[in-house]
Amino acid sequence: MAGTTAMMRSLVSPQFGEPSIYELRDGEMPNVKKPTEILIKVEAASINAHDVIMASGRTKAIQVLPLPYPIGLDFAGTVLDSGSAVSSCGPGDSVYGFSAAGGTAATHLLLDTAKAHTHAIACIPAGLGMVEAAGLPAVAITAMLALQHADNFLPGGLQGKTVFIPGALSGVGSIALQIAKRKYNARTLTAASGGKIPKIGDCLGQEVVDTVFDYTQVNVTKKIGKGEVDFVFDTTGLASEYLPMIKRGGLCLSIARLPPGSALKDESPDAPHQSRLACIGQNVMDGMDNAFRTWAKTMYGVVYVYQKTEPNNSHMQELNNLIQSGVLQPVIGKTAGLNEIEKIRDGCTAILKGKGGIGKFVILMDDED
To answer: In this structure, how many other beta carbons lie within 10 angstroms of the beta carbon of residue 20?
Structure first.
């Protein structure tokens, strides 16, 4: 008698479009076939802006993207099986991480450790739950690398420097502020809407933010003043508005402004062939990025850089160290079960519109077999 085929369920966008078209699809559960593979039963996955922007098709003319588009970059779960060459974790271990290929919003996930450029994974530190772990990898590593860049760039490092990180309770902003204060002892400035300001202390810790501005009531750049900030971490795409507040010789690092075309190129060995139109578009974007860098330097004496975050296993270990030393705590907002498709669509729509609320939106798989 033939055995029953094990099945899995995943969240996808069948076509490029808004989250209102997202759907659940059932398929055959993958199996470990190579000695370098790991099969994970996903317990939770969080949604990043990258997920919904890519699924919307905004970059489809200049970047090769798959359809249906697999949703999810971050995950937390339990290892079900692993190949003989995998030594970092094994069956029964609680793990979390990042998959550049997407598709983590699913009941099961198969990763190949031989393709280190496509994912990052680590065992979950003691005391951190699955939901909290799922909300960390992409945003925490993004924040960690941005602040490391600033610490290396600024004379004397970030210690005691003034930093402006908008989006106090956003996914990246909430983590970056904690690292800036607790690791680097920087003077932290941020912005949030009036309704969120009273929640900042409870979510991040009372000592994390030195000054917060209600961006709905004041012009933050004018309020801070010209040349008052050493480092701006642009998480909102408003780098051009923030430049006047930065000291000459200071740094503006963005993850939200229009990226250079090179940031959209997939350099992996198995990358799909790019069209001529995509190559032209990427070259145009490189030119625009170079022009903005030159303008920032000429007009304000500020160095501007765009950061493309590509997490790896070493970054995950650094993240574990930050968690275990008490530098950061996850900020989780709304959650939804994988079968609650309307709640998922609503949560993803809010993120696409830049109204994601507080912290990370996490999808739970525990209602699945």
So the answer is: 11
pLDDT tens digits, residue range 238-261?
999 999 999 999 999 999 998 998
**CATH 3.40.1180.10 is held by the domain 138-306:** no
Distance CA(315)–CA(142), nearest Å, equals 10
Domain boundaries, the chain: 7-136+329-364, 138-306
233 Cβ contact list (under 8 Å, min separation 6): 143, 146, 147, 150, 163, 164, 165, 173, 176, 253, 255
The enclosing H or E element of 94 equals strand 94-99
CA angle 204, 208, 209 (to 5 degrees): 105
289-348: pLDDT as tens digits = 999 999 999 999 999 999 999 999 999 999 999 999 999 999 999 999 999 999 999 999
Question: Tokens in use for 75?
Answer: 């995950």
Half-sphere exposure of 8 (CA within 13 A, CB side): 20
Give the predicted TM-score (pTM) of the model.
0.94
Task: Please give the angle made by the CA atoms of 93, 94 and 98, to the nearest 5 degrees.
Answer: 120
Specify the pairing of strand 37-47 against strand 74-82. antiparallel
7-136+329-364 folds as Quinone Oxidoreductase; Chain A, domain 1 (3.90.180)
pLDDT per residue over 160-194, tens digit each?
999 999 999 999 999 999 999 999 999 999 999 99
